[in-house]
Design goal:
By secondary structure, the protein is an alpha/beta fold. The chain has helices at residues 10-25, 47-57, 84-93, 127-136, 155-162, 201-205; strands at 3-6, 30-32, 39-43, 67-68, 98-103, 118-122, 139-143, 168-171, 182-185, 192-195.
Length: 213
């Protein structure tokens, strides 16, 4: 049976995060709050756990799992190089609602789905997510919902959809925005918005003026 922790209760938050980190290292799934929607996550480098994540959502490999990280500098170990305009976007909008699609380092031993050599990376603006990521390292995290249903706005909604396929639910209260992150592909010469979301095109263009909408 899945465990449910109220991370707004300071007396249990540390134990909850420790339990969640243990589950991640053991190849299990954890639901966690982010600044956009609730996510269901696994160790990004555990291919069996990522397969379980996709199965829990009823989602195919054709929709690869994004990766959440707990600090800016983590991205340097996941890609071959980071262009200056990519750093400009990171400095302006991380942590926050911006997901960047980058070419991942070919040496990485992970399988996030049919990524074709790329990975979608984000640093979320939520203390529970950041504190967990600081312990676990990069996590594959997708929205905590069954494929085709709305993303969960709270932990109870996530549990109603995903049930016991998840080991631990970390309740951080309702999400603030409920708006999915903006996705920007920075693998080409000119960055391109793939999905409109929490960060507007106008905001992005204050940093990279020629970004394609």
């Amino acid at each position: 049976m899945a465990l449910f922790y109220d991370c707004n209760d300071a007396s249990i938050r540390s134990a909850a995060l420790s339990a969640a980190a243990h589950c991640i290292s053991s190849g299990q799934l954890v639901v966690l709050p982010t600044d956009t929607v609730y996510g269901v996550g696994a160790d990004a480098f555990d291919s069996a756990a990522i397969t379980d994540l996709l199965a829990a959502k009823g989602r195919g490999r054709d929709m690869p799992v994004p990766v959440l990280i707990g600090s800016w500098t983590t991205i340097e170990g996941l890609v071959t190089s980071v262009a200056q305009r990519t750093w400009d976007l990171i400095e302006a909008f991380w942590p926050g609602g911006l997901t960047l699609v980058v070419e991942h380092a070919p040496s990485l031993a992970w399988d996030l789905g049919d990524t074709r050599g790329t990975v979608a990376i984000r640093m979320p603006l939520h203390p529970v997510a950041i504190e967990l990521l600081e312990v676990t390292g990069p996590m594959g995290v997708s929205s905590a919902n069954l494929s085709g249903r709305p993303a969960a706005m709270n932990a109870e909604d996530a549990q109603e959809q995903l049930g016991d396929s998840v080991a631990i639910y970390l309740d951080g209260g309702p999400v603030r925005s409920g708006v999915a992150s903006t996705i920007v592909d920075v693998t080409g010469e000119v960055p391109k918005v793939l999905r409109a979301g929490a960060i507007s095109l106008d905001e992005l263009r204050t940093v990279v003026p020629d970004i394609a909408g």
